[in-house]
Amino acid sequence: MQVKSRHHLRSDDISEIREAIADDLGVDIDGERFELVEFVDADYRLVLVDDDPAVFYVDDDEPFLTVRGANDFDPETGVVTVDAGAISFVSDGADVMRPGIVEADAAIREGDLVVIAEETHAKVLAVGRAMVEGDGMVGDNGKVVTSIHHVGDDLYEFSA
């Protein structure tokens, strides 16, 4: 991924990011330096928090934690938990299917961004967009989360 630009964010931009992440995931992003990175060949923008790729903009205006950021800051809400059988699929970027889900935050609404974690160690594997309400995610069949970003993709592999 080729970097197009990289610059420090203003305090009001940092406040907006912190508020959005706190509202969506119930976490406080703590950091000294926030830098915005734009890429030549990618549709998203990345925010480095103390040089770690912690936040990215989904659909150009919606800040959300990256997989690395979610593992660093441990979201309290907006979490979909999958069983061991789903780990390899989700880690490879597959959409999340109902049979692999063991638990989902009931506060999730259709269209919300969510983090997908595995049940044994609670490690985040992916970020996606909910296709149904949280209380309708557990079941026997059907796709319920569209994958956006996952372990091992270009965004995950980016280093400052």
Poorly predicted ranges (pLDDT <50, ≥5 residues)?
Answer: none
Using only C-alpha atoms, the radius of gyration works out to: 15 Å
CATH homologous superfamily descriptor of the largest domain: PUA domain
Overall morphology: globular
Instruction: Look up the CATH topology of the largest domain.
Output: Archaeosine Trna-guanine Transglycosylase, Chain: A, domain 4
Content of β-strand: 35-45%
CATH architecture of the largest domain: Roll
Query: Can you count the beta strands?
Result: 11
Q: In order across it, which strands form the biggest sheet?
A: 7-11-10-9-6-8
What share of residues is helical?
10-25%
Distance between the termini: 11 Å
Total individual domains: 2
**Major sheet description:** 6 strands, mixed
CATH class of the largest domain: Mainly Beta
Q: Provide mean pLDDT, rounded.
A: 94
**Count of DSSP-assigned helices:** 4
**Class by helix and strand content?**
alpha+beta
String of helices and strands: EHEEEEHEHEEEEEH
Tell me about this structure:
The chain has 160 residues and is of the alpha+beta class. The protein folds into two domains: 3-72, Roll (Nuclear Transport Factor 2, Chain: A); 75-155, Archaeosine Trna-guanine Transglycosylase, Chain: A, domain 4. The protein is 19% helix and 37% strand. It is built from four helices and eleven strands, in the order E-H-E-E-E-E-H-E-H-E-E-E-E-E-H. The chain has helices spanning 11-25, 67-73, 87-91, 154-157; strands spanning 3-8, 34-39, 45-49, 52-58, 62-65, 79-82, 96-97, 101-104, 113-118, 124-130, 143-150. The strands form two sheets. It has a six-stranded mixed β-sheet with strand order 7-11-10-9-6-8. A five-stranded antiparallel β-sheet has the order 1-2-3-4-5. The longest helix has 15 residues, at 11-25. It is globular and about 45 Å long. The mean pLDDT is 94.
